[in-house]
């Protein structure tokens, strides 16, 4: 059953959907669960990738912010930093914003070498009474893209009920029943739905979303998501200096923005790609700063879809010179198409770097963006499927090896490279007739198998690749 586009594109804070958004969501849910219990202390254990790269990915602060009652879609990133500074100074945690218990970030117990069976990103949260007896004991998994699941739950969840207002804006998830007009969980099923209905991929996705919310709500929700993407870029190009975390990585977006706005657009036939680079890097620099971003479908890969959307709105002649309503239509069609492709990756493989490496994050985002672009450029469903396939085929095997466990190197540049790859994949697909050798389903399955075979050193543990070959000083 397709995952809702509003679960794949949700508003959160950086730097990582699996290591920041998911843990915050889990912490908030646990805090609500124990709200009325006589809690005197809490115990937080992080396992696997959450423990090995949690410091650099902001996991410790995120889970504690969740325990304090913050939700990823509504938290003010600056207020969160202040709240964590107060916690460190006073050694007191206000559970769900109310009961106080003694706690500091150093109390979080890290188990980097222990992988719980269900997923490499696991956390155990316990609440105890004054006698030290467990009142609640829950294990959560953060499975990528901000989705979480408790031990006993078969199906992971994106936005939770606890996310409150923001969930209401986005609407409910697509139901798992026969009210969905075009159920699909593979590229073949999606193409069959298009053939049966005569609709483009975005039309099939819209019909499915319209089961739980009106078409105007879908449209305004997606335009709202795009607005958050644009605000993210606008904030980022005003920031200078270095990114946080200790690597002393200089922010480049502000300087590049200044340069590009001064340059003659006609001096270079590849000028458009400079802007694609800039938008992707601006989003990912904001993500690395812990700012507000849209998971698309993850935070680490959050720059690719906004960058390719920028290309659509600025450099696709049928869109750039169109009316506001037509430009909005293009944004909505792009995001619905990208979401339909993303839901296939989510259903049949993974969008989690900790599970399948960076091919699942940056590869999936590039594939989604290529599909969105191909559809806006007028591609048939088969050409759109081909674009999605090409973009993933040439990201297969991509490892996750962030230096210092920070979502900075190689992540920021990688988004820019992948956004350009997505543009190229869409253009290549549109030169063909949609008939091609490797199907999207075959490449999705190849990605899943490659991820399963990949050493855990290359799956968001910062224990291999660039993470061990580039000195941290
Ligand atoms: S290398 Fe890729 S998967 Fe790993 S943290 Fe960076 S963007 Fe995410």
Give your account of this protein's structure.
Keywords: 4Fe-4S, Gluconeogenesis, Iron, Iron-sulfur, Lyase, Metal-binding. It catalyses: L-serine = pyruvate + NH4(+). This is L-serine dehydratase. Its EC number is 4.3.1.17. InterPro entries: ASB_dom_sf (IPR029009), Fe-S_L-Ser (IPR051318), Fe-S_L-Ser_mono (IPR004644), Ser_deHydtase-like_asu (IPR005130), Ser_deHydtase_bsu (IPR005131). The chain is an alpha+beta fold and 473 residues long. 51% of the residues lie in helices and 10% in strands. It has 21 helices and nine strands. Strands 5-2-6-7-8 form a five-stranded mixed beta sheet. The chain has a two-stranded antiparallel ribbon with strand order 1-9. The termini are far apart. The model is unreliable at 160-172 (pLDDT under 50). The structure holds iron/sulfur cluster. Iron/sulfur cluster is lined by residues 300-301, 353, 358, 361-362, 400, 402, 407, 410-411, 414, 460.
């Amino acid at each position: 059953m397709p995952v809702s586009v509003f679960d794949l594109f949700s508003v959160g804070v950086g730097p990582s959907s699996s290591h920041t958004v998911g843990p915050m969501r889990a912490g908030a849910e646990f805090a609500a669960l124990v709200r009325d219990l006589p809690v005197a202390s809490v115990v937080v254990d992080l396992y696997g990738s959450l423990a090995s790269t949690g410091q650099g990915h902001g996991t410790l602060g995120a889970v504690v912010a969740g325990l304090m009652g913050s939700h990823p879609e509504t938290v003010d990133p600056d207020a969160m930093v202040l709240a964590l500074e107060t916690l460190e100074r006073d050694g007191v945690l206000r559970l769900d914003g109310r009961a106080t218990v003694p706690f500091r970030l150093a109390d979080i117990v890290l188990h980097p070498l222990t992988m719980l069976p269900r997923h490499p990103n696991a956390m155990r949260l316990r609440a105890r009474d004054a006698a030290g007896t467990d009142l609640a004991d829950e294990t959560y998994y953060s499975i990528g893209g901000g989705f979480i699941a408790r031990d006993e739950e078969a199906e992971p969840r994106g936005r939770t009920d606890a996310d409150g207002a923001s969930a209401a804006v986005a609407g409910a998830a697509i139901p798992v029943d026969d009210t969905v007009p075009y159920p699909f969980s593979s590229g073949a099923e999606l193409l069959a739905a298009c053939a049966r209905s005569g609709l483009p991929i975005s039309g099939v996705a819209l019909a499915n979303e319209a089961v739980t919310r009106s078409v105007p709500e879908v449209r305004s929700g997606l335009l709202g998501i795009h607005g958050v993407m644009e605000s993210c870029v606008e904030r980022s190009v005003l920031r200078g200096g270095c990114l946080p975390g200790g690597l002393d990585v200089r922010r480049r977006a502000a300087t590049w923005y200044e340069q590009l706005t001064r340059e003659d657009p006609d001096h270079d036939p590849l000028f458009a790609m400079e802007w694609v680079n800039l938008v992707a890097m601006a989003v990912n620099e904001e993500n690395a700063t812990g700012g507000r971003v849209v998971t698309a479908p993850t935070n680490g890969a959050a720059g690719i879809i906004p960058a390719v959307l920028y290309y659509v709105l600025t450099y696709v002649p049928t869109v750039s010179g169109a009316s506001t309503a037509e430009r909005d239509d293009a944004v909505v069609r792009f995001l619905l198409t990208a979401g339909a492709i993303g839901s296939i990756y989510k259903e049949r493989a993974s969008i989690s770097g900790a599970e399948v490496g960076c091919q699942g994050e940056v590869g999936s985002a590039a594939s989604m963006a290529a599909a969105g672009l191909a559809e806006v450029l007028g591609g048939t469903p088969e050409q759109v499927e081909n674009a999605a396939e090409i973009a993933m085929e040439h990201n297969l095997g991509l490892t996750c090896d962030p230096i210092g466990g920070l979502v900075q190197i190689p992540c920021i540049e990688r988004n820019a490279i992948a956004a350009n790859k997505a543009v190229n994949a869409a253009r290549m697909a549109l030169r063909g007739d949609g008939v091609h050798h490797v199907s999207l389903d075959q490449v999705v399955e190849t990605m899943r198998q490659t991820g399963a075979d990949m050493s855990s050193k290359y799956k968001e543990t910062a224990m291999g690749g660039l993470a061990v070959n580039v000195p941290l000083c």
